[in-house]
Amino acid sequence: MDTKQPTLKEALHAAIWAKTLTPGQMARVEATTFEVFVPKGGYVCHKGEVVDNWVGILSGMVKMNNFSPSGKSVTFTGVPPGGWFGEGSLLKDERRKYDAMALRDSRIARMPAETFLWLLETSLPFTRFLLMQLNERLGQFIGLVESERLLDPDTRVARCLASLFHSHLYPGSEPLLQISQEEVGLLSGASRQRANQALQLLERQGLLRVDYGGIRILDLDGLRRFEA
After folding, report:
1. Bridge partners, residue 211, by sequence
2. Is the pLDDT of residue 169 over 70?
3. How many DSSP H helices and E strands does the chain contain?
4. Residues 95 and 185 in one domain
5. Is the torsion defined by CA of 22, 60, 131, 33 positive or negative?
6. CA distances from residue 157 to 85, 126, 201 in whole angstroms, order as listed
């Protein structure tokens, strides 16, 4: 786990959506939002469950994925620290349509649906944030479909890493991504060996450096533009 981690209160106050809340609104968020620990490989959320929380990542990393009846897994995206998800299911009052699993030991924040919906009713800036969140999420998944259908594995890995630095969805990302080559493969739809080959290529291009404990991003714009 990270050597220096924010407390739940610190993480809540650092969130983009919290910046414009009133003291009273923030007090309710602090009073009702709670933290849970999910070990590596554990489920943060289950497909088909009743959605009663908005979910934030305090530390670690979470992947959204689904399994086919035959057991084949498809990963939609990874969520690093600072990211929040599940607002769509809360707004539509539907059961969750995907699993969310911890790629490593993770600290998870859960804001009860009652608080989330109360903020939606009482805070216009929070409502604006959610509109942006949903729009950016849509763009992310459109890009994912394009990546899966049109791009080669090297480019998919580059775009996958770049997507973890979205300033609105994942504002807490640091230049050193604490992510393994196996995790890169899972998030980009490549085998560990193929992801490793892609990382070596991107390293030779000067876009990143594979360091002990993670991957250091050297040229984020270059990763976003990269095509093999």
Report:
1. 214
2. yes
3. 9, 11
4. no
5. negative
6. 22, 33, 10
N residues, the chain? 228
Looking at residue 58, which CATH number applies to its domain? Answer: 2.60.120.10
What is the domain count for the chain? 2
Distance CA 34, CA 19 (A): 19
pLDDT at 220: 87
Q: How confident is the model at residue 83 (pLDDT cuts 50, 70, 90)?
A: very high
19 Cα distance to chain centroid: 20
Domain extent for 41: 8-123
208-211 vs 53-59, strand pairing mode: unpaired
Choose between 154 and 188: higher pLDDT.
154
Which residue type sits at 189? G
Q: For residue 132, what are the contacts with CB-CB under 8 A and spacing of at least 6?
A: 168
R_g (Cα) of the chain, nearest Å: 18
- Residue 129 maps to a domain: no
Confidence of residue 1 (pLDDT cuts 50, 70, 90): very low
**68: which 2 tokens?**
């086919």
In the block, which residue shows the tokens 């057991």?
71
One domain, residues 103 and 198 = no
Helix locations, 47-171, DSSP H:
87-92, 113-122, 124-150, 153-163
Residue 138 lies in a domain: no
Integer Cα distance of 49 and 86 in angstroms: 12
Model pLDDT for residues 27-50, shown as the tens digit of each residue: 999 999 999 999 999 999 999 999
